[in-house]
Amino acid sequence: MSWTFSIRNLIYSQERYTWAQVRIIYETEKAILVDNGRKIWIPKSSIYGVRLKNNNFEIYAKESMVE
Predict the structure, then answer these.
(1) What is the pTM of this model?
(2) For residue 58, is it within any domain?
(3) Which are the contacts of 14, defined by CB distance < 8 A and separation ≥ 6?
(4) Suppose 66 and one of 13, 20, 41, 62 were both cysteines; which one would form an S-S bond, judging by CB atoms 3.0 to 4.6 Å apart?
(5) Which of 14, 24, 16 lies closest to 60 in space, CA to CA?
(6) Under the phi-then-psi rule, with left for phi > 0, alpha for psi from -120 to 50, and beta for the rest, what region is 44?
């Protein structure tokens, strides 16, 4: 039985990661400005992967950073 809301999730809350399609607008030494419906700066230390899929850039980062 899998519960979305459970005591385990409250005690061991884990940050979830996801691939998000973005358009890279500008890059500095420490961060990247991306557009995924809204323009946001994401620190490079928070990006765990970058890939090109179907001619679109995707970054692997915490859900809370890209949503």
Answers:
(1) 0.72
(2) yes
(3) none
(4) 20
(5) 16
(6) alpha
